[in-house]
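Why this split exists: single-chain examples teach little about how molecules sit against one another. For that reason, every record in the complexes split bundles all components of an assembly together and asks for one structure covering all of them. Below is a record exactly as it appears in the raw files.
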Amino acid sequence: GAGVSQSPRYKVAKRGQDVALRCDPISGHVSLFWYQQALGQGPEFLTYFQNEAQLDKSGLPSDRFFAERPEGSVSTLKIQRTQQEDSAVYLCASSLSSSGNTIYFGEGSWLTVV
Amino acid sequence: AQSVTQLGSHVSVSEGALVLLRCNYSSSVPPYLFWYVQYPNQGLQLLLKYTSAATLVKGINGFEAEFKKSETSFHLTKPSAHMSDAAEYFCAVSEYSGGGADGLTFGKGTHLIIQP
């Protein structure tokens, strides 16, 4: 497809389980963002990539959260030892560059930790 | 640091009535401002953005917003509400016209309800 694709769309994890969320950005998009959206809240910035370089990870809530984009295209957000407070929608977004271009969002990965 | 305040977590209007969703921002640098819409179980879609050109910005689906520096506001309006406008609306601010590299700072959202 032509948009940002995320998988899985829905994930139920048991507390303590590790999860991996995948993002396929729009082809050719240099910038890639991850956001966390808790229920009833606005999205909150987690991390930003320019190509394969992770330029900002200041929004990652703990060292259990890790993101990578090894080849400058697909990105994976990994959460280790999930906890209930990790339950949220994780949104991936991409843009052609970091300035002057529209950011396009995927439909999100809904994570529920039980 | 930047922040966004959206007044009213829920706004209800009748079909055909004026829609007004309020957004106030705080920014230490000239801001770039955005409105996004989110339909149930879908991602965010850009409605419009202010990038220091015209203060009145027209977007998709008949929405527009006016940047008022003196009031630090960027309220979203639509003259006549349609049932299909029912959704969650988010105001966002950034230091960058593209919303990068630090990304966007979002408000908590306003749920728009359209009464038949």
